[in-house]
Amino acid sequence: MDWLVSIVVSLIMGAVVGWLAGIVMGSRGSLLRNIICGILGGFVGGIIHGLVPIGGGFIISLIFAVIGACIVIAIARALKIGGR
Question: Any residues with CB less than 8 A from the CB of 53 and at least 6 apart, and which?
Answer without folding.
Answer: none
